[in-house]
Design goal:
Strand order of the largest sheet: 1-2-3-4
Number of strands: 4
Order of helices and strands: HEEHEHE
Distance between the termini: 27 Å
Strand content: 5-15%
Length: 125
């Protein structure tokens, strides 16, 4: 899984976020992958662009616990996703709560509304 590493690289280096070239970031992968610590020590407060976190409340991927997102949700906007279809893949893959399986359209709409400055739901059910 490259998402967390790509996100970290974008935030601290190559994407120019600190220079003000980005208007905001949506983060949907938390903390780690099966092989490492990922973003567990990352200082999200150092990012100057607005941040939105999105996480499924019943994400079964052990390196990506919902309580980590919930904690970040005290400092940043958080969209909590609930429900969806029964998993058809490993808990850390897309066809599970980790990938918002069965709630993709509603989740993307919430993210889009946030990006466009519209009111967005704090919970997708």
């Amino acid at each position: 899984m490259r998402g967390p590493l790509d996100f970290r690289s974008a935030c601290v280096g190559g994407a120019g976020i600190r220079g003000g070239n980005r208007h905001g970031l949506g983060q949907t992968v938390f903390y780690g992958d099966r092989y490492g610590s990922g973003l567990s020590g990352f200082d999200f407060g150092a990012i100057k662009a607005p941040l939105l976190f999105v996480h499924h409340e019943h994400d079964g991927c052990r390196p990506c616990p919902y309580n980590a997102a919930e904690s970040l949700g005290q400092r940043f906007p958080l969209v909590t996703v609930r429900g969806g279809k029964p998993a058809q893949s490993d808990p850390c893959e897309a066809l599970s709560a980790h990938g918002y399986f069965g709630k993709e359209a509603e989740t993307v709409k919430a993210m889009k509304d946030w990006m466009l400055g519209r009111p967005f739901p704090k919970t997708v059910e």
